[in-house]
Specification:
The structure is a single chain. By secondary structure, the protein is an all-beta fold. The protein has a single domain, classed as Immunoglobulin-like. Helices cover about 5% and strands about 45% of the residues. It contains one helix and ten strands. Strands 2, 3, 5, 8 and 9 form a five-stranded antiparallel β-sheet that branches. The protein has a three-stranded mixed β-sheet with strand order 4-1-10, with no helix packed on it. Strand 6 and strand 7 form a beta hairpin. The longest helix is centred in the last third of the chain and has 4 residues.
Length: about 130
């Protein structure tokens, strides 16, 4: 077993997010990975977050690589009209949303605590199921 010097960087990991349940192949699936509860669930202004997009499909995969060890949460959006935001009607999402750990959604986005998972230098597989309300 090799010992690392005291100033060696911590090993990074990867987060493999499988997104299921998209109601159509229109638009993009967008995901954001953050470690900062202040920027959850919308981490657009989090400069340290990881963001990625793929073409919408009933079963899509997004991989976040080189993720430092820590506690994280993922937000997923099915951006059907590709306007880079969650469209709502009277505060109710018109596009699909999902979160790490697939918490029950009632009247608002879940807390960071309800969606948090740990990255510790290895690959973390997640499955996020998109939910549609309208």
């Amino acid at each position: 077993m090799a010992l690392l010097p005291a100033n060696a960087p911590e090993a990074t990991g990867a987060v493999d997010v499988r997104i299921v349940g998209a109601r159509s192949a229109k638009g993009m699936i967008r995901a954001c990975l953050t470690s900062n509860p202040r920027f959850f669930p919308n981490c657009d202004k989090d400069n340290t977050s990881f963001k990625a997009s793929v073409h919408a499909a009933p079963d899509a995969v997004i991989r976040f690589a080189n993720v430092p060890p820590g506690d994280y949460a993922v937000t997923v959006l099915h951006d059907e009209n590709e306007n880079f935001k969650l469209d709502t009607t009277l505060g109710i999402p018109r596009e699909g949303v999902g979160f790490s750990r697939n918490p029950r959604l009632v009247m608002s986005a879940p807390s960071f605590t309800a969606t948090v998972f740990k990255v510790a230098g290895a690959s973390v597989p997640l499955t996020v199921t998109l939910k549609y309300f309208l």
